Each structure stands twice: as structure tokens, then as C-alpha cells.
């Protein structure tokens, strides 16, 4: 019993100090909330990036400054792949898929240079089950998936109640390209991340301060 309490205390203390560090970076450096969220969303020591966080990042990518900060982080994740940090790569791949279908059109052109890396990693156990490579290689498929994403997003915005929005959000994950492209031999598996939630709050506070 005492051991469980101690571990819970350590977990809460770690989370507290992590949040303080994030707040300090936002205040004392030129890092942006979107940049910080992208770093957190593609770190291997956290859960998969949740749909809300990826939505915030994809919208921020339409701003020039945030766009370059976001793509730089993703390029680094792909460049630094090895078998010990495959989770960073895999989570970056999930985020890239979302950016391809929800972010600026130029994302597809930006990551053409990473196709060879994605192909190479295809030989690894945790391969591109999200179909990112297909989106990068097929302009027709990319247009279809972007149209599908817009249609589903507009469907969510058309509902009034929270419960309807929640059920529509579930529909997105079930009907998205994540399912359509099929699964391979990946053992990787959307959990809500409290750290990402706090980043969304940090972004709101900064915007209010401006």
C-alpha cells in the first residue's frame, strides 16, 4: 500500500515539474505552443497523439512560422530513427498522416524527401500501416482523403450537443484512412494525454494575453 502511494506521489510530482518546465519554455523562449505540442505528440515516452492535439497542430500549420517549426520536428524524428526509438518515428508518422489530410497542401510536397526513409522502415517490424507513403505517392488518393477529412470535420461542426460531437469524433477514427489502408505486421496501436490537454490550455492563455 505504501509503495503504491509513493509511486503515485512520484508520478504527480514528475507531472507537476514537467508542466512547470513547459510553462517556463513558453514564457522565456521563442517556442510556440504548437511547436511544444508537436514535440510532446511525437515523444516515445507518451501515449499516441490524440485527435484533439493533432487537430490543433494541423490548424497551426497554416501559419507560416508554426508550419516550419512543426515540419522541422517531424523531419528530425524521421532522420533519427533507430530500433531503440521507433516509437518517436511511429508517432511522427501518425501525425504526418493527419497533417496530409487536414493540414496545408504543401505538406505533401515537403515530405517527398522522406519517402525513402519511410520505405526503408517498411522492412522493420513496425511499418507504415497508416498509409502515409501511399498519400505521398498518389495525388489522387491524397485529394480523396483530404475531401473525406473535410466532409467528416464539417459533419462534426454541424452537430449542437457535446454527445453528438463526441460520437462524430469516434466516427472519424473508425472511418478514417487509418482503417482503409489496412494493417500489416505492426504491433503498435488513441488515448487522451493529460499533458497534451495542458498544452492546449497554455495556448489559450497565451492568446488571451496577446
Please give a structural write-up.
- The protein is an all-alpha fold and 210 residues long.
- It folds into two domains: 1-30; 31-190, Alpha Horseshoe (Serine Threonine Protein Phosphatase 5, Tetratricopeptide repeat), CATH 1.25.40.90.
- Helix content is 71%, strand content 0%.
- It has twelve helices and no strands.
- Helix 1 (2-28) packs parallel to helix 12 and helix 3 (51-60) crosses helix 5 (86-102).
- The protein is globular, with a radius of gyration of 18 Å.
Strand content: under 5%
Overall SS class: mainly alpha
Coarse morphology: globular
Proper CATH architecture of the largest domain: Alpha Horseshoe
Number of helices: 12
> Largest sheet, described in full?
none
| Rg of Cα set | 18 Å
- Could you say how many structural domains there are in total? 2
List unreliable stretches of 5+ residues: 160-209
Give the rounded overall mean pLDDT: 70
At the first level of CATH, the class of the largest domain is: Mainly Alpha
- N-to-C order of helices and strands: HHHHHHHHHHHH
* CATH-derived topology of the largest domain: Serine Threonine Protein Phosphatase 5, Tetratricopeptide repeat
Distance between the termini: 47 Å
Helix content, binned percent: over 70%
Number of strand segments: 0
Amino acid at each position: 500500500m505504501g509503495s503504491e502511494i509513493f509511486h503515485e506521489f512520484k508520478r504527480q510530482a514528475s507531472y507537476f515539474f514537467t508542466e512547470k518546465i513547459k510553462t517556463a519554455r513558453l514564457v522565456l523562449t521563442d517556442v510556440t505552443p504548437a511547436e511544444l505540442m508537436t514535440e510532446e505528440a511525437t515523444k516515445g515516452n507518451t501515449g499516441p497523439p490524440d485527435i484533439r492535439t493533432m487537430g490543433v497542430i494541423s490548424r497551426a500549420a497554416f501559419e507560416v512560422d508554426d508550419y516550419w517549426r512543426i515540419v522541422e520536428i517531424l523531419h528530425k524524428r524521421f532522420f533519427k530513427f533507430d530500433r531503440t526509438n521507433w516509437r518517436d518515428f511511429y508517432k511522427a508518422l501518425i501525425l504526418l498522416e493527419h497533417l496530409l489530410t487536414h493540414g496545408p497542401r504543401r505538406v505533401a510536397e515537403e515530405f517527398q524527401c522522406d519517402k525513402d526513409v519511410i520505405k526503408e522502415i517498411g522492412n522493420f517490424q513496425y511499418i507504415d500501416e497508416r498509409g502515409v507513403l501511399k498519400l505521398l505517392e498518389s495525388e489522387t488518393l491524397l485529394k480523396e482523403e483530404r475531401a473525406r477529412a473535410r466532409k467528416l470535420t464539417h459533419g462534426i461542426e454541424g452537430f449542437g450537443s457535446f454527445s453528438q460531437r463526441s460520437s462524430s469524433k469516434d466516427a472519424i477514427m473508425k472511418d478514417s484512412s487509418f482503417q482503409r489502408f489496412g494493417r500489416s505486421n505492426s504491433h503498435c496501436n488513441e488515448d487522451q494525454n493529460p499533458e497534451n490537454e495542458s498544452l492546449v490550455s497554455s495556448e489559450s492563455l497565451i492568446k488571451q494575453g496577446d
